[in-house]
Amino acid sequence: DGGITQSPKYLFRKEGQNVTLSCEQNLNHDAMYWYRQDPGQGLRLIYYSQIVNDFQKGDIAEGYSVSREKKESFPLTVTSAQKNPTAFYLCASSIRGGTGANVLTFGAGSRLTVL
Amino acid sequence: KNEVEQSPQNLTAQEGEFITINCSYSVGISALHWLQQHPGGGIVSLFMLSSGKKKHGRLIATINIQEKHSSLHITASHPRDSAVYICAVSRYSGGGADGLTFGKGTHLIIQP
After folding, report:
1. What is the mean pLDDT of residues A35-61?
2. What 3-state DSSP class applies to A90?
3. Helix (H, G, I), strand (E, B) or coil at A98
4. To probe the interface with A, which of B36, B100, B101 has the most A CB atoms within 10 Å?
5. Distance in angstroms (rounded) separating the CA atoms of residues B40 and B84
6. Which of A43, A57, A92 lies at the smallest CB-CB distance from B97?
7. Which residues is B34 bridged to in the sheet?
8. Tag placement on chain B: N or C end, fewer CB within 10 Å?
9. Any residues with CB less than 8 A from the CB of A90 and at least 6 apart, and which?
10. Which residues, 6+ apart, have CB-to-CB distance to A1 below 8 Å?
11. What is the predicted pLDDT for the residue at A97?
């Protein structure tokens, strides 16, 4: 079955450490997204990629980095520069990007806790 | 003022009740999405609509483009419907790089 796989589901990090969250899709989707979810807030875009080797910063990109070397993979690195990284992180994909109407497929999420 | 507003924020109902969740938006859109997030955290796309009405099982979504308003209805509600329901809009312009703006969600609990 096609879908999005995020790993790990739970991750604990010490302050000052970088961590990388994995996101893999086998849907042959061009566009991939990383969102952050905090209690009482809507999903906020961290990074967005419409195509391989291209990505754009979202509203809260500071302290995060991404790469898109393969169509299937869009890993997110949470760096030590991110001041408040404890949150739930969701990866998503769609057939294409842009401002048209595209159905999103989400992964199961990764919960990061900074100790 | 948020560009996508959902109401109510929280809703508790008894099994079997008819449920309505509302979404109002203030920007031009190409489509509106209804998403479901279960306690485990994963999100499922329920509907994407740009006009009229869509139905899937016990779920019905409607949109009124002129009034910039959408509703999600659940008929014969069941405890397994307990989840957070999120409204999101695909914008013609503005918003984030992804062209999407999300509401804060409606937390629904259906008691047996």
Report:
1. 92
2. strand
3. coil
4. B100
5. 11
6. A57
7. B47, B87
8. N
9. A6, A34, A35, A36, A37, A43, A106, A107, A109, B41, B43
10. none
11. 76
